[in-house]
Specification:
Pfam families: DUF7344 (PF24035). InterPro entries: DUF7344, WH-like_DNA-bd_sf. Residues 2-80 form the DUF7344 domain. The chain is mostly helical. It has helices spanning 2-6, 8-18, 26-37, 47-67, 85-88, 90-100; strands at residues 24-25, 71-74, 79-82. It has a single domain (2-100), classed as Arc Repressor Mutant, subunit A. It is 63% helix and 10% strand. It has a three-stranded antiparallel sheet with strand order 1-3-2. It starts with a helix and ends with a helix.
Length: 101
């Protein structure tokens, strides 16, 4: 679990999804995370950055989160949502957020 939480972008994903009760389009999630990380408005994220982040998320971060049973990916709808398991690691997310600040 600590390997999962060691990567800042995965923590961003988990934090974003923890606040939502419904699935989110993966493209929207990636745009939100990229904007947050680079302190930009969502519409200011460069397309090149989004393309690179999309590749990284699809091939690295989302599969790891799904493998840890923290998210569910609906490939047909291209959405992702948190699983109930995410609630069980909520305290670790909070600690990681405190350390980051």
């Amino acid at each position: 679990m600590f390997e999962i939480l060691a990567e800042p972008r995965r923590r961003f994903v988990l934090s974003h999804l923890h606040e939502r009760s419904k699935p989110i389009a993966i493209a929207d999630l990636i745009r939100e995370i990229s904007a947050d990380q680079h302190e930009l408005a969502k519409n200011e994220v460069p397309e090149g950055m989004l393309k690179q982040e999309t590749i990284t998320f699809h091939h690295c971060h989302l599969p790891k989160l799904e493998g840890a049973n923290l998210v569910t990916i609906n490939a047909d709808r291209n959405t992702v949502m948190a699983t109930e398991t995410l609630q069980s690691i909520e305290q670790f997310l909070a600690i990681a957020a405190e350390i980051e600040q």
